[in-house]
Each structure stands twice: as C-alpha cells, then as structure tokens.
Design a protein that fits this description.
Blueprint (H helix, E strand, L loop, with lengths): L19 H13 L5 E5 L2 E5 L3 E4 L1 H8 L3 H13 L3 E6 L2 E6 L2 H87 L1
Antiparallel strand pairs: 1-2, 3-5, 4-5
Helix pairs in contact: 2-3
Length: about 190
C-alpha cells in the first residue's frame, strides 16, 4: 500500500475543492495511482503504467465513494478540461494519467527510496566491516597457530638434535671405554 503526499496548496485549487465529492474523487485517484512502474494488461495489450497512472472504471469509483456515476463522469471530464488529468477510454476501462504527479509525489518518493538505499548501503558497509574484521582476526589466529606449529617443529628439531648429540656423545664415550678396555687388555 503506502502513502501519498497531500500538499496544502490543494486547498487553494478551485477545481479539486469545488465540493466534497470532487475532492473525494481527486483523493481517490491519487490513492489508486501507481507510485512505480508496473506492467498490466489493458484492452488486450500489455502496457507499462508509470507513476501517476491508473486504470479505472467509473462505476467502481461511484460505488466506493457513494457518488453517482454521472457525477464521477462530469468530475473526470472537468479534471481533463482543466489539465489535471489525461484520459484514454476503452471498453475495458479508462487509463488516467495525473499530470502533476511528479511535481507533488515523485520528489518525496525518491527521497524515501534514497533513504532506503542509504540505509541499505550503510548496513552493507557495516556488515562488510564486521566481516572484514572477523576475517582479519581469523587470519591472525591462523597465522598465530601456524607460528606456534612452526615453533613446536623447531623445538622438536632442537630436541631431536640434542638427543642425537647426546646419543653421539654416549656412543663416543662407550667407544672410548671400549678402546680403553682393549688397550688395557692389549697391555696385559
């Protein structure tokens, strides 16, 4: 659904404010006009309704507003003569274009769309910043894990080297002891 903008200058418009029924019909048109492009079927043709356009049947307006069909017809003719609307009538209904739609409605709707886009952009930017921060922390954590693993491997190598050196030292001592025994045995 949504909303429309009713400018206070409407009260100074003698065409629209001629009487209560005329004002009711005008507001009904504003409320039912498209606010964005929409493809529809009209008279067997596929057309695109632009903002400020709508397809009506006078009888529907008459029933909804409890205004005679002839009053709706005369009012619509008056709006057309005073260049408030354009009408294209076919047996399936009437295509109405509200001529000043962009002047009174579009700016506000663009502002709302821009605000929504800005909010979405801000949210997306914030989400990207959070995601980037999380990725950075994960990267740092992985880097730290890799560094710890490298340090453990280095420590293992050092321990392994110490063990090898100790074994080598022990082997040398045993060989020396064995040689000494042989020397002692040779002397005897």
């Amino acid at each position: 659904m949504g909303w429309i903008k009713l400018d206070r200058r409407l009260l100074n418009n003698p065409i629209v404010c001629k009487d209560a029924d005329t004002l009711a019909i005008w507001v009904w048109l504003l409320l039912h006009a498209k606010w964005q492009k929409e493809d529809v079927n009209f008279g067997g043709e596929r057309i695109t309704l632009n903002p400020g356009q709508l397809i009506i049947q006078r009888k529907k307006i008459s029933e909804q507003l409890n205004v005679s069909d002839s009053k709706v017809y005369r009012t619509m003719k008056c709006f057309e003569n005073e260049q408030q609307i354009e009408q294209l009538t076919k047996p399936q209904g009437t295509l109405i274009t509200i001529l000043a739609w962009n002047k009174y409605q579009r700016d506000e709707q663009l502002n709302e769309q821009q605000m929504n886009n800005e909010m979405n952009n801000e949210r997306t930017t914030s989400e990207q910043q959070v995601n980037n921060l999380l990725l950075y922390k994960e990267y740092k954590n992985n880097k730290n894990i890799n560094n710890i693993q490298k340090q453990k491997e280095e420590a293992r190598k050092v321990v392994s080297l110490d063990v090898v050196e100790a074994k080598a030292k022990g082997l040398k001592e045993r060989q020396k002891a064995a040689n000494e025994k042989r020397g002692i045995a040779k002397e005897c």
